[in-house]
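Late entry, evening session. Most of the bench is empty. Finally got around to the prediction I had been postponing all week. Sequence below, unchanged from the version circulated by S.P.
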Amino acid sequence: MKSDSQGWHYCDKKGCEYKSNYSMSMIRRHKAGVHNIGVVWHDCPECEYRGKEKNTLRVLRISVHGTVLVFPCVEPNYSFKTEQKHVRTKHSTNVHGFFKKRAPYFATKRAPSAKLSYDARRDAPTRKNTSVWAT
């Protein structure tokens, strides 16, 4: 990968004229996407799909397979859980007085019409449908 004094980064693949002034990571992303150089493959555990970007796999699992990411409370024996990472962060900070980076999460199936909502007054999730969580 080449760079110049004006902050431009260039793809070093022969014959390619791609350049970016954003960051070197954009060049790595370009090389993986266009030239298949340095690709990290992400396989779907539920079908034959294989993608080059982790976010594409996440979108596939949510939209096609109905999978949701669930972020439970990091405190043991506390039943709080949500589908939104930032809500768990607010819960941890407001209720327990701390924020834990890299807290665990898991994937599960959700009933097609079920939604999880957050009740800020009680700081606990409420279910709009009783079949929200598959166990």
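Two things to note before I forget:
DSSP finds three helices and ten strands in the chain.
The longest helix spans residues 24-35.
Will write this up properly tomorrow.
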